[in-house]
Amino acid sequence: xxxxxxxxxxxxxxxxxxxxxxxxxxxxxxxxxxxxxxxxxxxxxxxxxxxxxxxxxxxxxxxxxxxxxxxxxxxxxxxxxxxxxxxxxxxxxxxxxxxxxxxxxxxxxxx
Length: 111
Description:
Largest sheet: none
Number of helices: 4
Helix content: over 70%
Number of domains: 2
Oligomer: single chain
Distance between the termini: 77 Å
Radius of gyration: 30 Å
């Protein structure tokens, strides 16, 4: 009887270890799938950002040269180390537009 009981306990232990191994393998597979999905979504997001940027650049070609001059002044002042508030006060341009111009300028530099 003792040997049979020991055999049953060993059998349950073995089944438990095998079950934990399967669980770990399945968890690792799910984690890898999630990482792959995140990488795919990041690449799609980057391509969408580039597409939007190119579309905005095409729209900006039609704008007047005075806006181009303002953009150049914003970039020059930023390169000189001026704070955003100083640029806003000096040119009378809203802070959101300044941030947008600088963001697109940084994207151009990255290319």
